[in-house]
Amino acid sequence: MSPRLKYILIFICGVLVILAATFVISKKYVEPKAVDVTDAASTPTAENNMERVVVSRVVDGDTLKIKTGGTEDTVRLIGINTPESVDPRTTVECFGKEASTRMKEIAEGKEVLVVKDPTQGERDKYHRLLAYVYLTDGILLNQKMIEDGYAFEYTYNIPYEFQTEFKGAEKDAREKGLGLWDKSKCDYTSDPKKSSTKSSSK
Known about the structure:
Blueprint lengths: L2 H26 L21 E11 L2 E6 L2 E7 L2 E2 L14 H12 L3 E5 L13 E7 L5 H7 L4 E2 L9 H14 L26
Parallel strand pairs: 3-6
Antiparallel strand pairs: 1-2, 1-5, 2-3, 4-7, 5-6
Helix pairs in contact: 3-4
């Protein structure tokens, strides 16, 4: 074999090795998927635990009416409790009306993503759907209500997925004196319901 032919064969082999390596690398690389509330990857639960719905009415600061499949359902937000404003069995509590009004401003008539939590039951004893509610911009409404001082963190029997984050949000709101933690408006030191968790609703 002539030296010239030998060099040509070596060059061709080198090109083939480079092409093969490029092909293998491209197969292994997958473009990262953008995080979005419409994608199951954006929440901790499986895709069949998610549903896009419209909030038809706000009941109070922690309970919504939603339109799903042509029917209306009631959603109780997981991990939060707002002062009572509509329960006929109790008096209107401090900051209850404000929490209800704020929820109406944020959610009423809006499209949201309802996400169930496998660590919790699907419905409470009043047959309300238990869920996290995401706004279209990705904000977790449950946590936002706590962060802004409109809701208490609330655990019913079993810890839920975002318990640590919600407890931290309540601590921050309390230290800043936001909303219901403002001593000039209310005199809360904790969520009144926490003293009777076993007998109360979620």
